[in-house]
Write a structure and sequence with these properties.
This protein is 88% helix and 0% strand. The chain has 266 residues and is mostly helical. It is globular, with a radius of gyration of 23 Å. This is ABC-2 family transporter protein.
């Protein structure tokens, strides 16, 4: 059933994202043309095209957030919720489908934006610069060894779990806001800010309780070798990943419990 929910979510959201992706590539090509021509008569059209290109990228980022909120709220917490929750599907499957699709569009938005920038700016100089960068990167990896690939893997996992944790935090805030009979939006915003304050308090308590140990550890790293510094970076990324996972799991089960026990569709 999760597969069917994913298919439905992708179909519903692709109507928003795919045209924006296509428009972004079109304006990347238009800007590429203006850069190739480099005529003083085309300065104004070139400035307009570049401005539109930037606005589309900003719009894609904003729409990712808007669609995340709109799909969860409309599909589960409005009149559509009656239909959604009559389906033979567990509550967590509804949450999973929306989280996975949000992650998919977030990653695709970044990739399409990077590709469009590359298409717009690619020339002989940028290709040589990219090749030089890749050669230096591979040389660094050869010196660091397998730890370099571990760092990349941890960085990717941090991005993935960061997106999922942020998404489920929004879902939790929307669900809390839905409990209010009159001021759903304000309650949801307050809940989102409240979650952030709680996390800051917890992090502050942890850091303050181990402040001397952390300071001593990083002071030792200043004189440590390259391998020890790489291992420290791995440890920091691992701690951040663990934090994202813990926060995300806690908010996930909180959201699932609220939807299952406290849902208010009136």
């Amino acid at each position: 059933m999760l597969r069917k929910l994913l298919r439905y979510e992708i179909k519903a959201t692709s109507r928003t994202f795919l045209p924006m992706y296509a428009l972004l590539i079109v304006f990347a090509l238009i800007n590429k043309f203006f850069m190739a021509v480099n005529s003083s008569y085309l300065k104004i059209p070139q400035a307009i095209a570049m401005s539109v290109f930037v606005f589309i990228i900003i719009g894609i980022c904003v729409m990712t957030l808007v669609v995340t909120i709109q799909r969860f709220n409309k599909n589960l917490l409005t009149d559509e919720g009656y239909l959604s929750f009559t389906l033979p599907v567990r509550v967590h499957s509804h949450i999973d489908s929306k989280m996975i699709v949000t992650l998919m569009w977030s990653v695709l938005s970044v990739l399409v934006s990077l590709i469009s920038i590359f298409v717009m700016s690619v020339n002989e100089t940028t290709i040589l610069s990219f090749q030089r960068f890749m050669n230096e990167l591979m040389a660094a990896f050869s010196q660091i060894g397998p730890s370099g690939y571990v760092l990349i893997l941890e960085a990717v996992l941090l991005v993935i779990f960061g997106i999922l944790s942020s998404t489920v935090e929004i879902y939790a805030a929307i669900t809390v806001g839905n409990m209010s009979s009159k001021h759903k939006l304000l309650t949801g915003i307050g809940a989102y800010l409240g979650f952030g304050v709680i996390q800051q308090i917890i992090v502050s308590i942890i850091l303050s309780s181990s402040d001397k140990s952390i300071t001593r550890y990083f002071n030792l790293l200043e004189t440590a070798g390259e391998f020890a510094q790489v291992q420290a970076a791995e440890t920091v990324l691992l701690v951040l990943i663990a934090y994202m996972v813990i926060v995300g799991v806690a908010l996930y089960f909180f959201t699932e419990w609220m939807l299952r026990k406290k849902l208010n569709l009136e």
